[in-house]
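FW: tagging you since you asked about this chain on Friday. Here's the raw sequence from the shared folder, copied in full. Didn't touch anything.
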Amino acid sequence: MIINLNGMNYSYFIVGNGEPLLLFHGFTGSKNTWKPFIKKWSKFFTVIAIDLPGHGETESPELIDRYRIENVVEDIYTFLKKLNIDQTHLLGYSMGGRFALSFAMIYPEKVCSVILESSSPGLKTGTERLQRKEQDEKLARMIEEEGLIRFVQYWENIPLFQSQKRLSEEIQAHIRQERLAQNPHGLANSLRGMGTGVQPSWWNRLNELNIPTYIITGELDRKFYKIGLEMVAKLPKGEMFTILEAGHAVHVEKRDKFGKIVVDILLDEKEDS
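HL: got it, structure written out here
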């Protein structure tokens, strides 16, 4: 389905009954990232998945500001109003997790709980943000100048995704196809507008987030495992789950375990509320 949010067309789907669960994919992903889980999750929840700007079937505008997390947060706030949703659970992977956390920080009253898979609250220092912004600009230029196929070949071979080499050829091919189906212009602008270097840093305000926040990381993804531990220490209602023999994309590498953990977290949350 297509919905216009503050002048931009977003693509989404909605399935099931029960409390809403709003899903945000990672960079080079789409709402289809979550399709393997829909049958199970929709038995308990109203599952909503949306394509973030520059991804899937959502628009890929020219204006970089249109991709900025603060502006997309306003779009999703409008989205919830249009769907008459007062409160929702949020689940985000990587870039989508950074976005979910940002939404929860800005509109905590709209959020029941947050599940963050392999995500961060941004970068701590101005120097780190500047360096990351420069790195993302190089990647954006690579997409524009060398093309999507070359970029995807590079992206699937970065250290962050090495553990995915153990997956079946079929699953690896599926991930590759989702990446290759993207709009190159949208991906480049997403890096410029929603990259870690330009997003707000929430590190110093995590103690303000008085919402149940669940962090899921893979044992093999040491960087985000350490980030997760540091986040949990700051969050008033934080809890962390580490999945053995999984890397950055836990939902791909340990699909059944990930799907069950999400349901267990949210059903426990429902009992406690």
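FW: The chain has one domain: 2-122+199-272.
HL: agreed, and Strands lie at 2-5, 8-16, 19-24, 45-50, 88-93, 111-117, 213-218, 238-243.
FW: great, closing this out.
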